[in-house]
Amino acid sequence: MMARASALSAADRRVWFMIGAIAVALLIPISQHFFGLRLSYTVRVVALGGSILGAISGVLGCFAILRRESLVGDALSHAALPGVAVAFLLAGRELSLLLIGAGVASWLGLRMVAAIMGTTRIKQDAALGIVLASWFAAGIALLAYIQSIPDASQAGLDHFIFGQAAAIIERDLRLVSGVGALVLLTVALMWKEFKLVTFDAEFAGVNGLRTGLINTVLSTLIVITIVLGLQLAGVILMVGILIAPGIAARQWTRKLDQMVILAAVFGAFAGGVGAVISAMDSDIPTGPMIIVVAFGLVLLSITLSPERGLLWRRLNERANRRRFAAQHTLRDLYRYALRHGGVDAPAPDDFIRGVGDRRAELGLRQLQADGQATFSETGWRLTAAGVQQARRNAHNDKLWDMYRLHADELGLPAAQEDRLASITALLPAAAVAELERKLREAEQRR
Amino acid sequence: MALSVDDLTVAYNEKPAIWDIDLAVPKGVLMGVVGPNGAGKSTLIRAVLNLIPRAAGAVSFYGKPYERARSLVGYVPQRGSVDWDFPTSVLDVVTMGLYGKLGWFRRPGKRERELALNALEQVDMADFAARQISQLSGGQQQRTFLARALVQDAQIYFMDEPFAAVDAVTENAIVQILQALNGRGKTVLVVHHDLQTVAQYFDWVTLLNVEVIASGPTAQAFTRENLRRTYGGRVAHLQSGAP
Q1: ipTM for the complex?
Q2: Is A158 exposed, middle or buried (CB count within 10 Å of its CB: 0-12, 13-18, 19+)?
Q3: pTM above threshold 0.90
Q4: Which of A38, A66, A372, B64 could form a disulfide with B68 if both were Cys (CB 3.0 to 4.6 A apart)?
Q5: Could B96 and A5 be called an inter-chain contact, meaning their C-beta atoms sit closer than 8 Å?
Q6: For residues A373 and A370, what is the distance between their CA atoms, to the nearest angstrom?
Q7: In this structure, are residues B206 and B31 in contact, taking their beta carbons and an 8 Å threshold?
Q8: Backbone phi and psi for residue B16, each to the nearest 5 degrees, phi listed first
């Protein structure tokens, strides 16, 4: 498999197709009319809110996953709860102020994790556990206190625990889309900085990037994303909507830009669909609903995606086993025939099965299916196609032998030896020509 | 001097990892840094490059402090220090070597792409430009990192164990690249493990075991006596090549 810089590979096309298809599907609940289907105003607001938040979470979640900071996201969202409560006590029920309170608390939580790790020998996972549990406990206690105050406006504050999409109104939507647009714009502007700091922070530092500043901006964006999503997904499950789209997207692609865009549409899909389902029956909290949809996507991706997917890998293993068996059985048949009078000589069934055991069984079936060997009363005989293939394989094998012997002295490029594969596909043409020359020399000497 | 280090000390949890290091590395040498496990070889490089906090000491590159010398410095970190499953291609990783020069917000374009391809050619990896980094062998990963350092076009290169767990072909290729760099007047510092090849690869050597035991031209510093003081007698018998 030679990697050429082609314009658009099959994998690329597949990813862009998925992105397009999901994006179009999302227009259904958001548009006012769709094939005569009239959706209510509330449903549209909720769907739009859920989609926007899901998309932003998906984008920032990719970086959280790649930096192995998924659990940092979890601690951050739990740490936000006391901030919401304190902001309510100080300023009353005003969403933007509640969110600022959440953001400040989250950020303080993050500082506390850093402080614990910097001053003690407690490791990151334990430090996160400490902050997550203690700040969440403080938040629950404060909410209980607030509920005891006789004041009607506290209603709905506990939505921050599990999330409630039905609570989203148009004014919230403007806030969310405004801040969200700023977040995405920052990601676009600082794309290469974020990428390098995520991949190799030390190299970024030596290379002259301001890694401290870039890390701070990235963490701040993650905090903002979490805070925006709190009302929808709730502090407990926010981490799910943050990381699930990225995990699902990672299965389908090997390019960071595709992963981030795909995570955005996955997130938008999960956020939108989850929010709408929950808004239709307000007894279902939104957070769990979104997570169900999001992890449905994760499950599908882990199972079905090409190359990384479990199903694909299983099928691939089976195909490889069959190819291996067929190649070996073909070689056995060919050698037997050559020693017994020529390529037309049949090999007795017992002999072939005796040599190859269960592998022969599999190989013979495969060769028969490929039309490379036929069975008659006298035994197994190679067809013309089978002989041709056997000769090709034998030649390929000899070239690999030459490669093993002479790659070093000839200065040939490194390649993983794989005798199932054709060497011409793994090495540049010039290198193969060198090997052919070596092979001719070796055969003349003999 | 390409690199001067004065009284550099680094401590992890109060125990010094490197102690009172003084080094003067002249321009244009190819220097090996050798010493036993835990001697602080990587720590020395990382402290010099400001990647870990220093307890004390000063470092200058071509007479300038680190902050003003960044464009002079190239770095090849240990291969295991990054996640090779990161979703990106070989060409992309090499292009990262140019991000610092590009500055804020500017994206790599055609010129950067060409520089990166050129560097890949130098390490014999041009055919792998579009390859995903997860599909590379250890030697190919090392060459990719080397290409990324080459595009930095630095004056002084720091390489942390570039020969660790690579095959003989790759080791040879890397040595040739290092010698080519050296031939163009660059200064190269290499953390190295294999004492057998020190005299063959490097014209300058620093023996380190928390403190600097010896530093200078290989012929003078790489002696049996200095090795014994560095390794404590354990490997003296290995040193048939050392005087």
Answers
A1: 0.89
A2: middle
A3: no
A4: B64
A5: no
A6: 8
A7: yes
A8: -70, 130
